[in-house]
């Protein structure tokens, strides 16, 4: 009987762990806070920059997450540190995604960044 109780409680443990992770994942929360059009715009920016090869559907998954993280690192490097985002911080993650949505980071994603400005 104890084994059955344990087996029945396992899905609940995984669901609650997943919910806790979602609450602490600032990047996922910031992405979810965007409109459907905004989420697709972020994925389009990432795709144009060569960071995202998935479907531009506005869904947040492992490909979108990986692309966001890799693009943020590339932007930081290509901007010589002028554009940095702490993706574990809710406000900063939101600032990053908003800038992507508006195209404000395009010059760092596929342009020459600040190279023409003297680095």
UniProtKB/TrEMBL annotation:
<feature type="domain" description="Peptidoglycan binding-like">
    <location>
        <begin position="37"/>
        <end position="69"/>
    </location>
</feature>
<dbReference type="InterPro" id="IPR002477">
    <property type="entry name" value="Peptidoglycan-bd-like"/>
</dbReference>
<protein>
    <recommendedName>
        <fullName>Peptidoglycan binding-like domain-containing protein</fullName>
    </recommendedName>
</protein>
<keyword id="KW-0732">Signal</keyword>
<feature type="signal peptide">
    <location>
        <begin position="1"/>
        <end position="22"/>
    </location>
</feature>
<dbReference type="Pfam" id="PF01471">
    <property type="entry name" value="PG_binding_1"/>
</dbReference>
<dbReference type="InterPro" id="IPR036365">
    <property type="entry name" value="PGBD-like_sf"/>
</dbReference>
